[in-house]
Amino acid sequence: MNSTCHSWGKVDVTNEAVELRSVISDSLVKIPLTAVRSVGGNKTELALQLKADAPGAQTGGITMQSIRFAVPKTCIGYEQTEEAGKELQAAVTNAMTACGLLEKASVTAAGGAAVANVSNVDIGKIVAVFDGLSLSQPSGTFQCLIGTKGYQFINSKTKAVFSLEHSNISNFFLITIPNTDSLYLVLCLERKLRVGSTDFSCVVLTIDATQSIAESHAWKMELTSHDDIVSVLGEDAANLVKPTMFGAISDIIPSVFKAASKKPMIGGSNAEYQSVTRALYDEDTQTTALRCAHKGSDGMLFVLQNNLVFLHRPPLRLRYKSITRVEVDDAASGSRYFSLHVTMESGEKFVFSSLDKKEQTNLLQYLATKCQNVVVKKNAAGNEDAEDDEDDEEEDYNESDEDESDEDGSFDDESDDEPKRKKHKKDKKDKKDKKDKKDKKDKKDKKDKKDKKDKKDKKDKKDKKEE
Known about the structure:
By secondary structure, this protein is of the alpha+beta class. The chain has helices spanning about 80-100, 225-235, 235-240, 250-260, 360-370, 380-400, 420-465, and strands spanning about 10-15, 15-20, 25-30, 35-40, 45-50, 60, 60-65, 65-70, 105-110, 115, 120, 125-135, 140-145, 150-155, 160-165, 170-175, 180-195, 200-210, 210-215, 220, 245, 245-250, 265, 290-295, 295-305, 305-310, 315-320, 325-330, 335-345, 350-355, 375. It has seven helices and 31 strands. The N and C termini lie far apart (about 95 Å).
């Protein structure tokens, strides 16, 4: 739920609360520091994520999850807008630190102004630590602290922090990336996680399946004995992990994540569905992955037993039971590709384009067994609407990424390289135009050759007749 109060005022930060006051000093909004879960924002806003169990956070069954204070383009006393935004973030962080609400604030200097990226989620007792974990979404290299109540990720480059409670994880997916030696470990979230200025419904780790840890350099948990593991994490966890572990990291990392959270780990295979086209993969590969595009980004749509999972930008998990309608745009009958339009119970719509048409029949038959309403659109107008929907979605997502920057130590999406994406799309279009031009030329040459041959045959026939 979005609620707009007043559009103008002054933000005061005290040792008790963050308060928005009107120009005549009336209190408009007051947020106790004890209700703040994390502090973030960007050059144009101060964003406070709130605790779900904080007093006053729930009203009439509705939970207030966050509040944002926009920084105007012109700020009195500041030559540059971002200076005001940074000082607001630093002021809240320092106040929470002074009150003991934050154990440690990660503050970096940028151009003389302090900025803060902190998270005070209680992750409980630390049971394991991983260094150098590679995340695809949010992108970067992170140190991960695994606790009995949650995970904390610290960016190795910017030292920015974000945390995630176990209660916010519904399940894990461990998915093999076709034709590579890597795996995706996908943490599916019940509530979206805001990192920087982007909301994520999944956190995605990339694991190199070829890497392993030698016994002589075995990785160690913070729990030093089997009895400690049983005492802190339980018997089931003790069957998954040991105080000292070695072998493939693709076995170790998922096992530790699962043991700590006690959430199900689902594989990426599906005995009921396999991709028809394997030209892009090894001939012997059995995969559920379909190459496609979503919001202008190329990726893979994994057709699993209970979910559609798109990886990886933005990562998505769509439960079949929550899908109310599936439309396949088949208007462009001469095209090699088709689009899949998925509508959820919430009203959200997702468009996956550039799917190989050879997959269409097989995919439709399978989705018809899982989803309520599967429709094939034949009208050209529907095709135009679908393209408009997809363009709108792409524009919305790109706008949400434009504010992200790592100049101030904040989170950034390192895969969000807009110029490269635009160049890639332009190169792809140029390549297609070049191919179409070549095909047209080949077709013309073939016709000219045939006409020439027909003309010669006709002449020979006439000469023979005259003789």
